[in-house]
Amino acid sequence: MTYGNVNVETVTTSTPGGILGAGNASIMKNRIINGAMTIDQRNSGASVTPSNAQYLTDRFSALLTQSSKFSAQQNAGSVTPPAGFTNYLGITSLSAYSIGSGDAFGVLQKIEGYNVADLGWGTANAKTVTLSFWIRSSLTGTFGGSILNSDVSRSYPFTYTVSSANTWTQISITIVGDTSGTWLTTNGIGLNINFSLGTGATYNGTAGSWAGAYYLSATGATSVVGTNGATFYITGVQLEVGSSATGFEYRQYGQELALCQRYAYIPNSSGNVYTTFAVGYVYNSTLGLATITFPVTMRVTPTFASSGNFQINAGSSTLNSSALSLNQGSPYTAVIGATISGGTTGYGASLSAQNTSSALLTFSAEL
Amino acid sequence: MYKLINTTFGNQIVVRTNDNAYIPMDEANTDYQAYLKFLADGGTPLPADEGAA
User: Fold this and answer.
1) Domain check: are A211 and A117 in the same one?
2) How far is the C-alpha of A60 from the C-alpha of A87, rounded, in Å?
3) Do A23 and A134 fall within a single domain?
4) Average pLDDT, chain A
5) Is the CB of B24 less than 8 angstroms away from the CB of A325?
6) Alpha carbon of A344 to those of A288, A312, A318, B20: distances in Å?
7) Which of A261, A294, A329 is the last residue of a domain?
8) What is the pLDDT of residues A100-155, one digit of tens each?
9) Which residues make Cβ contacts (< 8 Å) with residue A46, sequence separation at least 6?
10) A364, B33 in Cβ contact below 8 A?
11) Which residue of B5, B7, B29 is in closest CB contact with A303?
12) Which of A219, A238, A261 is the last residue of a domain?
């Protein structure tokens, strides 16, 4: 039996305006990870006043040239998210800052090159994409942002309009693919998407066209950090192939978490004060070695950090650890060294939290 | 500032001393890229201690 081909631009439902899919259909159509702001491994819903490049909700980081101009929090202000969503990333301006020409503030997602390789950007076959998201701000007017390549030599400033204050508005921006420049298709940065919170003249360009320049936003866009207490809430971020926005691609929680864990894996002891993180052996009297296997292959060998109190459980002994270190790493596993005293060489061992809910390991392979 | 650490496996790892983050020598790791830029700009890491961490 043979089957023919079905070629469609859009698949609609009987509900007016209901669109199921377009272009490359619907499975993994969204190149944004954590676009619904569901995963918040680092902050667990707490407010942060970020430093530059600090991560907010997973995969979204802060861009800033001046400190303490805004805070960020999953579900800041506890407003009702748009229908179908349970979370958003909330930005709150902490002052009325006058933007300098070289200033830039924003929320950024860096997309791995593997995940946008099919876009063909930098070639004659560059595909058109559509960026869509929900926005709610205490400010109205024209807002801006930009898409950039990895070395920021190519950029596409865009604008969008918020007409009603404190009202969720869905935005859709269609971008013709860039046929110039170098766009990585590796495990490096495929593209950057910046949602501007205020950008100085140096980094502002003309909206709606590609430029061989480092632009983070569009000329004339609103500065969120320019108004004390101004809010900027965002969720439902989606980047997809095609010239129209389709329904948001909801993913299962575990699936979205796994996608995030390619870039950051942060096990903690919040659910069990003796959480076991890794198993290994006692190397000598002052060092225990324990191997942790990552739940997904990380993008690169990750950077390691820890906080809280830990112990090595070896034989019938519990040995407090004064420090953890990274002894060997790969994208798949890491060998953690735990400084101890009184260890018996060769004993089997495990590394666990030391009766605390705040022990935390951080493995970061962010772009 | 950075400091080098000798590990029990005979390799070296870079420690970023301001937050005690252990940075593997993977050229695709963005923290290691920052360390390489630190070196290129003339920076010198603190030497590794005797023995292995």
Assistant:
1) yes
2) 14
3) yes
4) 94
5) no
6) 9, 11, 11, 27
7) A261
8) 999 999 999 999 999 999 999 999 999 999 999 999 999 999 999 999 999 999 99
9) A73
10) no
11) B29
12) A261
Interacting residues of A348 by C-beta distance below 8 A, sequence separation 6+: A279, A280, A281, A314, A315
CA A286 to chain centre: 38
Best CA proximity match to A158, nearest among A143, A169, A168, A171? A143
Are A281 and A317 members of one domain?
Answer: yes
Q: Examine the domain organization and report whether A334 and A225 are in the same domain.
A: no
Give the model confidence (pLDDT) of A229-244 as tens digits.
Answer: 999 999 999 999 999 9
- CATH number of the domain to which A242 belongs: 2.60.120.260
Nearest CA in chain B to A331: B26
More confident residue, A192 or A28: A192
Q: Which residue from A minimizes the CA distance to B20? A: A305
Nearest alpha-carbon partner for A363 in A327, A331, A322, A321: A331
- For residues A244 and A321, membership in a common domain is answered with no
Domain hosting A346: range is 265-364
CA–CA dist A298, A363 (Å, integer): 9
**Cβ(A151)–Cβ(A182) below 8 Å:** yes
B12 interfaces chain A, CB cutoff of 8 Å: no
Q: What is the pTM of this model?
A: 0.92
Q: Which residues of A touch B24 (CB under 8 A)?
A: 301-304, 326, 329
In chain A, pLDDT over 90 holds for what percent of residues?
A: 92
Query: What's the structural domain count of chain A?
Result: 2
Phi, psi of A105 (to 5 degrees): -135, 140
Say whether both A252 and A270 belong to one domain: no
Does an H or E element contain B35, and which? helix B30-40
Give A-chain residues touching B53 at CB under 8 angstroms: 287, 325, 327, 337, 339
Q: Are residues A187 and A293 in the same domain?
A: no
Structure tokens at B14: 């870079």
Q: Which chain B residues are closer than 8 Å to A289 by Cβ?
A: 8
In terms of domains, do A219 and A321 share one? no
* Nearest-CB residue to A303 (from B9, B22, B53): B22
Instruction: Please indicate whether, in this complex, the C-beta atoms of A304 and B22 are within 8 angstroms of each other.
Output: yes
Question: What's the complex ipTM?
Answer: 0.94
Q: What is the predicted pLDDT for the residue at A27?
A: 73
